[in-house]
Design brief:
single chain, about 270 residues, alpha+beta, 7-stranded mixed sheet, 7 helices, globular
């Protein structure tokens, strides 16, 4: 269990109060950044636990490997434009509480994180994932748990759909849309294979900025070429945004046409904070 961060009386000016800052959340919070060549606790700058540093450095090594395909992830990690955390068991109450607290902090930190690519890395100590189906179940259970907490405080990001069957779907938290990428030890995709179950929350609007700047297609082609060179083929789930629901890509498991996302946002959810 991570060290409980200092609990201040209120947020700084211009920063929203964290609605997920309960006792269980603080006990499981592990919010950290990469500063001065090492992972440190935010906002104090103090040291993190050895296992946190080990998992982070392992993930950083994977992404920065020359053969790793996602150039956006490489840019974010290389330039330190990310936050990272390590939690207990994926899907547990404690992990969900700590993750909600830290992901909200990341959303509030975004204005101060410069760069084209920003991401939040959430790794978990367990469980030992046996296969892709088990991980897919865990991933969506974790996202469902995050949503159930978030729906009490925030609406869905109006820039994207809350329906996972909609081509315009993206996961939303604290009013901000994310494209989620799952990594785990049983993945059939080499660049998704990592010892500790991990969820990567990529800020959705960065992809829109790439489109607006005319760079999206180039980045996409580079990623696909690298994936084919490494794996020998593309994941059949891959598609351009707006063609197929991106929910199919989150876990990394190749799925058929009849696949249905287990996530449900509810018909009564609006896009306004409540």
């Amino acid at each position: 269990m991570a060290t409980i961060p200092e609990h201040n009386s209120g947020p700084p000016p211009g920063r929203r109060a964290n609605p997920f800052d309960g006792e269980l959340a603080r006990a499981n919070s592990a919010y950290a950044s990469f500063r001065g060549g090492r992972l440190v606790r935010e906002p104090s700058g103090g040291p993190v636990a050895p296992l946190e540093e080990f998992v982070h450095d392992s993930l950083r090594g994977l992404v920065l490997n020359p053969r790793f395909s996602c150039v956006g992830a490489k840019a974010a990690i290389r330039r330190g434009q990310y936050r990272a955390s390590l939690y207990g068991t994926m899907g547990s109450r404690g992990a969900a509480a700590g993750l909600a607290r830290d992901l909200f902090e990341f959303v509030e930190d975004l204005p101060g994180i410069s760069g084209d690519f920003t991401t939040f890395l959430a790794s978990f100590k367990g469980p030992n994932v046996a296969n892709e189906v088990d991980f897919e179940r865990l991933l969506w259970a974790q996202l469902q748990g995050l949503f159930e907490q978030d729906r009490l405080h925030h609406g869905w990001d109006p820039a994207v759909s809350a329906n996972p069957d909609d081509p315009d779907f993206s996961f939303s938290f604290a009013g901000r849309a994310f494209f989620v990428v799952g990594l785990h030890p049983a993945s059939s995709r080499y660049t998704r294979r990592f010892t500790w179950p991990t969820l990567v929350f990529n800020v959705h609007e960065q992809f829109e900025r790439l489109r607006e700047g005319g760079r999206f297609e180039r980045v996409r082609e580079v990623i696909r070429a690298r994936e084919i060179e490494l794996q020998g083929n593309l994941n059949p789930n891959l598609s351009d945004f707006g063609e197929l629901p991106e929910a199919r890509q989150y876990s990394g498991r190749p799925v058929g046409e009849g696949w249905r996302c287990p996530f449900h946002a509810g018909e009564d959810d609006s896009n306004e904070e409540g």
